[in-house]
Each structure stands twice: as C-alpha cells, then as structure tokens.
TrEMBL record:
It comes from Deinococcus malanensis. Signal peptide: none annotated. This is Riboflavin biosynthesis protein RibD. Its cofactor is Zn(2+). Pfam families: dCMP_cyt_deam_1, RibD_C. Converts 2,5-diamino-6-(ribosylamino)-4(3h)-pyrimidinone 5'-phosphate into 5-amino-6-(ribosylamino)-2,4(1h,3h)-pyrimidinedione 5'-phosphate.
Length: 368
C-alpha cells in the first residue's frame, strides 16, 4: 500500500506529462513517461516516442547521466523486465544505480505484471507502486484494452443540440450534410483527440452523406489516425474520399469489396460488432474513436462495446432532427449510466465525459 509522500505526486505528474507526448504514437506499446530526480531537482526526462524506439526510462537516464546514481526514477508504467524490440528497462535502471523507483501502475499483462517491480526490489532498489495510478491507468486505457481484451478501447464522440439532435434533416428526411452543431473550441478539441487515437470509425451512412476525409486538421505536428468504415451492406462507394491506403473497411462475410481493396483499403470481415473489434485488435488498433453515425454507435452500445463517451452539448434548439443513437425501446431503469463523469465548458458548448466500462487492470478479469 502506498504511503503518501507529497513530492511523489508532483514528480509523477511530470512523468505523466512526458508520457502524454507519445499518446497515439506508441501502439502496440503503451505511452510511458519517466523523470529522474536527485536532491529535489529533475535531472532527466523521457517518453516513449513509438514502438521499436527506446523506452522512456532509457531517454531519462541518458539525460541524467551520472546524476542518476542514487536518484529516484518516476515511471508511469512498471518498467519492462523482458527483451522485446529493446532490452529490459529494469536492467537499465539497475545499471544506472538508482536508489528508488516510483511506479504509477503495474503492467496489465498477466504474464508480465509485477515482475519488473520484483526484479528491482531483488536488486536492493526501493520500489513504490500506486502514485497517481488512476491518471496513469486512464492514459494507458488503449494499451490495457488491447493487452487484456484483444480489442481497442472504444470512445464514442458526438455533438448534439440542447434538445438532443445531432443533425438537421432536409425535406426528404435525410440528414443535412456538413451541418455544424458546435463551436470552434469544441471542433478544435475533436481534432486534438483525433491526433491521439489509432482509428476513427464511421458508418456507411455518414460516408454517403458527408463524404468525410477523417483527417487531423489544424494540429501542429499532428498525424492522421486510420479511418475505419463499418459497411455491412457494401454501400460505400470505392470513390469516396475516405477509401484510400490505410483505411479499413469492416463488412459482412461474403461481401465483395475488391474495388475498395484496389483503391488501397484493407477489408476485414465480421458478422458481429465484437468480432469486428477483435479483428481490429489483431491489426494493433488500441483506441477507436467512433464519430458516426447513430446506427453504428447504437450497435456498439447495445453490444456493451462502448467504453467511454465524450458528448458535446450545444446551446441550440432544433426540433426535428437526427438522434445520436438507434436501438430498441427500453425502460429508463435499463439506461446505461456513465461513471466518473466530468463537465467542461468549451466556448458556448458543454463537454460531458464519462466511462461505461472499466479500464482493464492487472487481475481485474478483463471483461468485455
């Protein structure tokens, strides 16, 4: 059990800030940050930039140099104790002569978790576990989901008016193309989130109506996640802007989407939403940002596969319009209730965030 030591929380926050620099770029590895502290001074900082490159501890130890001897290392995830693409970070910490290692969270892999901490203790290093654990676990949600459940962490994002409409309808009853619900601050936040995820998912209806590119715009140094189009009936045109190299199209077994493959898209076949997410997990998607439309979101929600919700509410009243979800009628007592809910004003809009599923942890079972 962790005994509170105020400087630990402060330095772990710095380590979490370092880890944030790698969010969305490290898959299938986790985002990890590390700071080396000696005599109340930060001597080294590091983060894991991408799979195949050195881990956070290595960068921090390089910067600290000889000042790492007798120092404390703050790491957001338990240092690895096995050889992968890079040598074990445990060995690097031991060789550097650090006196203490503070770990935010243990590795979620049941075959690995705890071994790094045990090896450090066996080498005579003081080890503390559990500092800022909740923040670290949330930052690592995608990695944890991929490791323990074999599927990405699913985030459902939508924007609606105060009366619960995500789009206006035209005279034919179709959703209005490119109608903007929220303001600039909310749209900028969405672009920042796209920069942090592995994939953006939409249904074929959204592609047909909006013909979106699903890219990251206006984010300095941003990179585009992979588009994922759920199209069980093969409705998406192969000439749609989103059909390009890197895009994944999820369709039903037996569908012929060879024209999409010829355009560079990768086609995977799945009969059910859970099977589709498992297939995306095999492609190393650790996070999936679901942006539309109501049929796709409803199918994932009804299957219990939406892990996190991020909803923007705009101070507008529309009347008739498109609802954010489709699904069967159910009594209010069966509504899915968000946990750990937060509220944040963004311009005139309100951002509501919360969890529907628990983030997988070591020995937590990994349901869903």
């Amino acid at each position: 059990m962790y005994t509170e030591h105020p400087p630990d929380a402060e330095y772990m926050r710095l380590a979490l800030s370092e880890a944030a620099r790698g969010v969305g770029r490290t898959t299938p590895n986790p985002p990890v940050g590390c700071v080396i502290v000696q005599g109340g001074q930060v001597m080294g900082r590091g983060f894991h930039p991408r799979a195949g490159e050195p881990h956070a501890e290595v960068f921090a130890l390089r910067e600290a140099g000889e000042q790492a001897r007798g120092a404390t290392a703050y790491v957001t995830l338990e240092p690895c104790s096995h050889f992968g693409r890079t040598p074990p970070c445990v060995d690097a910490l031991i060789a550097a002569g650090v006196a203490r290692v503070v770990i935010a969270a243990l590795d979620p892999n049941p075959r690995v978790g705890g071994q790094g901490a045990s090896r450090l203790r066996a080498a005579g290093i003081d080890v503390t576990v559990g500092v800022a654990e909740e923040q670290a676990v949330h930052q690592q949600a995608g990695f944890r989901s991929l490791v323990m459940r074999g599927r990405p962490w699913v985030i459902y994002k939508y924007a609606m008016t105060l009366d619960g409409k995500v789009a206006a309808l035209d005279t034919s009853g179709r959703s209005e193309a490119n109608g903007l619900v929220t303001g600039l601050a909310s749209r900028a936040r969405v672009m920042a989130w796209r920069n942090e995820v592995d994939g953006i998912a939409v249904g074929s209806g959204t592609v047909t109506t909006d013909d979106p590119l699903l890219t990251t715009r206006g984010v300095e140094g941003g990179r585009d996640p992979r588009p994922v189009v759920f199209d069980g009936q093969g409705r998406t045109s192969a000439s749609a802007r989103v059909i390009r190299p890197g895009t994944v199209v999820v369709t039903a077994p037996g569908m012929d989407l060879s024209t999409h493959e010829a355009a560079g898209a990768q086609v995977i076949y799945a009969a059910q939403p859970r099977e589709a997410l498992t297939e995306l997990g095999r492609l190393n998607f650790s996070t999936l940002f679901v942006e539309g439309g109501p049929t796709l979101a409803g199918s994932l929600l009804n299957a219990g596969l939406v892990d996190e919700v991020r909803a923007f509410v705009a101070p507008k009243l529309l009347g008739a319009g498109l609802n954010p979800l489709t699904g069967p009628l159910r009594p209010m007592r069966e509504a899915q209730v968000l946990r750990d809910v937060t509220f944040e004003p963004l311009g005139a809009d309100l951002l509501v965030r919360g969890l529907l599923n628990d983030i997988p942890r070591l020995n937590a079972g990994g349901a869903n």
